[in-house]
Amino acid sequence: MAATSTFAGLPAALPAATFNRLWWVLLAVALLPLGRLVVLIATNDLGANPVEFVIRSLGTWTLVLLCVTLAVSPLRQLTGWTWLVRLRRMFGLICFAYATLHMLAFVGLDQAFDFSAVWTEVVKRPYVTAGMAAFLLLVPLAVTSTNGMVRRLGGRAWQRLHRLVYLIALLAILHYWWHKAGKNDFSEVMAYAAVIGVLLGFRVWRWLGTRAAEN
């Protein structure tokens, strides 16, 4: 509660015009890495291993957008800015877009759409298994992200389904961790793991606080 009072001078709600401008600005910022990647592809400036560069870039920004999406609820609770919740769907769908491109780059550029080879990679390589599982779990969340699907599923069922994002976050970290294990380079993945740990830990702390208050 003390944290919320710190932000009491800032608006809990935004006028529609202001929010719309902010929405478009944040959308443009979230798509900047994709635009940069398109420019690098067009100028043939992807380095010595262009396929690996594309796949890793898309994977990195998938994880970044996943962290941003998970950060919305804690920030809303800490600041009291209710308008943050209205940004969560946009961030989540952009995360899914990056994840889809990441998966297509792997299947198309790395495996040349050889689905038997893709399946072999999924079975034999744990980091591919975790990554593919995370992507497949993202699909129903993207499909049910509309207001119409919330009404059709019902609020509680929709919330239960979208709690899969916590499992997706853990799978994403495992995917990245196992990928880096081959090079014994964990510095970057540990930073992301710490962020995910804080965001999920905050939810556990709030849940425990709610349970204690009820008892």
Structure description:
The chain is mainly α. The chain has ten helices and no strands. It has helices spanning 2-6, 16-42, 50-79, 85-110, 115-124, 126-143, 147-153, 155-162, 164-181, 187-214. The protein starts with a helix and ends with a helix. The mean pLDDT is 91.
In short:
The protein is an all-alpha fold. Helix content is 82%, strand content 0%. The protein is globular and about 55 Å long.
Strands, helices and their partners?
Layout: H1 2-6, H2 16-42, H3 50-79, H4 85-110, H5 115-124, H6 126-143, H7 147-153, H8 155-162, H9 164-181, H10 187-214
Helix pairs in contact: 2-3, 2-4, 3-4, 3-9, 3-10, 4-6, 5-6, 6-9, 7-8, 9-10
Secondary-structure-based class equals mainly alpha
Estimate the helix proportion, in percent: over 70%
* Secondary structure tally, helices: 10
Evaluate the radius of gyration.
19 Å
DSSP summary, beta strand count: 0
Task: Report the mean per-residue pLDDT as an integer.
Answer: 91
% residues in beta strands: under 5%
Query: What general outline do the C-alpha atoms trace?
Result: globular
> Uncertain spans, ≥5 residues at pLDDT below 50?
none
SSE pattern:
HHHHHHHHHH
**Alpha-carbon distance between the two ends:** 20 Å
What summary fits the major beta sheet?
none
Features:
215 residues, 82% helix, globular
